[in-house]
């Protein structure tokens, strides 16, 4: 063989593992895989928990904003509300907010958002950020019946009428509210206005 010739290196044969060696390798691989899978699962869980916390925080913030908006609208509507009924013989200069209605077992059945009163009349006003559902109107009809059945102190032996007020009142629902005998009030800028009925309207007395 000359100096320029090279000898082909024949790779040494790999030994065939024994059954014991194979199972040892397999078991070790399984343990390592399970550890890796568990690590991935824990990381995924941590990420999901972080996302859930962020969603919970966002939901609470949105809920708080909704509550704040509702309270703001209620306060804006309650201010000097009695002035809106100057064409009617009410003169309701006393105003109360969040008046509970208790049953005979002292359980709260409902709440009156705003209650206007004098010595002869009371008016229960339901306030919504947006009045757009007939169900809300029907709920107020049931609330009026509860006031008569379980009268709060300020309503006892007084004539009762009702009203519904909203930051926005959908045109299609105004007529339905009037049909039930309720006054309709709506925010207009920083003021609240009494919505004029489109047909003959007689306030219902409960």
What does it look like?
This protein has 206 residues and is of the alpha/beta class. The chain has two domains: 17-77; 79-194, 3-Layer(aba) Sandwich (Trna Endonuclease, Chain: A, domain 1). Helix content is 41%, strand content 25%. The protein is built from three helices and six strands. Strands 1-2-3-4-5-6 form a six-stranded mixed beta sheet, with helices on both faces. β3, α2 (134-149) and β4 (159-169) form a beta-alpha-beta unit.
Outline the fold blueprint.
Layout: H1 19-78, E1 94-102, E2 108-117, E3 121-131, H2 134-149, E4 159-169, H3 171-179, E5 183-188, E6 191-194
Parallel strand pairs: 3-4, 4-5
Antiparallel strand pairs: 1-2, 2-3, 5-6
Order of helices and strands: HEEEHEHEE
Mean pLDDT: 80
**Tally of separate domains:** 2
Count of individual helical segments: 3
CATH fold call of the largest domain: Trna Endonuclease, Chain: A, domain 1
Helix and strand content put the structural class at alpha/beta
Output the keywords.
single chain, 206 residues, alpha/beta, 2 domains, six-stranded mixed sheet, 3 helices
Question: Briefly, what is this?
Answer:
This protein is 41% helix and 25% strand. The chain is an alpha/beta fold.
């Amino acid at each position: 063989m000359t100096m320029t010739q090279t000898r082909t290196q024949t790779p040494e044969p790999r030994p065939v593992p024994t059954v014991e060696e194979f199972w040892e390798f397999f078991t070790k691989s399984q343990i390592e895989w399970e550890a890796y899978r568990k690590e991935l699962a824990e990381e995924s869980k941590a990420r999901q928990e972080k996302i859930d916390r962020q969603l919970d925080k966002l939901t609470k913030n949105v809920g708080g904003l909704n509550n704040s908006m509702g309270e703001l609208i209620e306060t804006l509507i309650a201010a000097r509300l009695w002035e809106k009924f100057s064409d009617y013989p009410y003169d309701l200069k006393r105003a109360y907010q969040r008046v509970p209605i208790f049953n005979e077992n002292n359980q709260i059945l409902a709440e009156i958002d705003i209650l206007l009163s004098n010595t002869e009349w009371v008016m229960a006003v339901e306030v919504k950020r947006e009045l757009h559902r007939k169900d809300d109107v029907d709920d107020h009809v049931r609330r009026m019946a509860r006031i008569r059945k379980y009268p709060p102190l300020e309503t006892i032996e007084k004539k009762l009428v009702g009203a519904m007020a909203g930051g926005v009142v959908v045109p299609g629902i105004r007529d339905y509210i009037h049909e039930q005998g309720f006054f309709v009030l709506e925010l207009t800028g920083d003021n609240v206005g009494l919505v004029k009925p489109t047909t003959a309207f007689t306030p219902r007395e409960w």
